């Protein structure tokens, strides 16, 4: 055979080369059309929803848009800034124990003393002072001075109305003069069941006004139950500044102390009002 038959033809080699380059160029054009010009693909980490391709563009001034996961295609006319909305709402903490000062009352400190809360809506009220808490103790002065003017009768009526509105809360009532009397044989917080509430109302109806007044003892025993809120209703007998300091010292749980004063209004800063201010409660005259 001659040497000419074993030499590759130049025209055939050139044709094969041009065909190969054309195929590569076509593949490159197809791939380049997958992502619009000026865009960059991003993945949202920690998203448990199906994979979503999110395209972030340089937005024109003052224009933005929010899309939810599942939107995979954007037209050229869409606004240019894209972000993902959270699928679950942010966690919120419970409502804090609070006391709303009614008109004619004096609000001391902050009404949101510490974490807690129960139920929904406006919540119960005592002498028109609304409150929200998981536990409440009522300290009702039953000393001799509470009888003649009808103060004890008013306290019993307001207490019964408040107790009937309690729900999903623990409570206790201490009637006090020189000593204290609680609801039930054991001095502890009670669940606000219909039976317990009716028992408390029946017991309150039989309380009579007699004896002296010992606010400090009542407050000590009330704080020992560690409630969120205390209501003390009295006709105005006072604490000493030293007693206020001692009660504040033992109030380690930061119980909110509120005072319903059935005595004549006073303008001066009394020790009871100081105690209320230190605990973040309210002081009202009724």
What does this structure look like?
This protein has two domains: 42 residues, no CATH class; 188 residues, von Willebrand factor, type A domain (Rossmann fold, 3-Layer(aba) Sandwich), CATH 3.40.50. Helix content is 27%, strand content 21%. The chain is built from six helices and 15 strands. Strands 6, 9, 10, 11, 12, 13, 14 and 15 form an eight-stranded mixed β-sheet that branches. Strand 13, helix 5 and strand 14 form a beta-alpha-beta unit. Helix 4 runs parallel beside helix 5.
Highlighted features:
286 residues, alpha/beta, Rossmann fold, 2 domains, 8-stranded mixed beta sheet, 3-stranded antiparallel beta sheet, 27% helix
Brief characterization of the structure:
The protein is of the alpha/beta class and 286 residues long. The chain contains six helices and 15 strands.
Estimate the global geometry from the Cα principal axes: elongated
Mean pLDDT: 74
The total beta strand count reads 15
The CATH architecture of the largest domain: 3-Layer(aba) Sandwich
Secondary-structure element string: HEEEEEEEEEHEEEHHEHEHE
CATH topology assignment of the largest domain: Rossmann fold
Number of domains: 2
Level-1 CATH class name of the largest domain: Alpha Beta
How much strand content do the residues show? Answer: 15-25%
Low-confidence stretches: 35-96, 106-121
The CATH homologous superfamily of the largest domain is termed von Willebrand factor, type A domain
Give the distance, in angstroms, between the N- and C-terminal Cα atoms. Answer: 129 Å
Helix-strand category: alpha/beta
Mind summarizing the main beta sheet? Answer: 8 strands, mixed
The Rg value, from CA coordinates, equals 38 Å
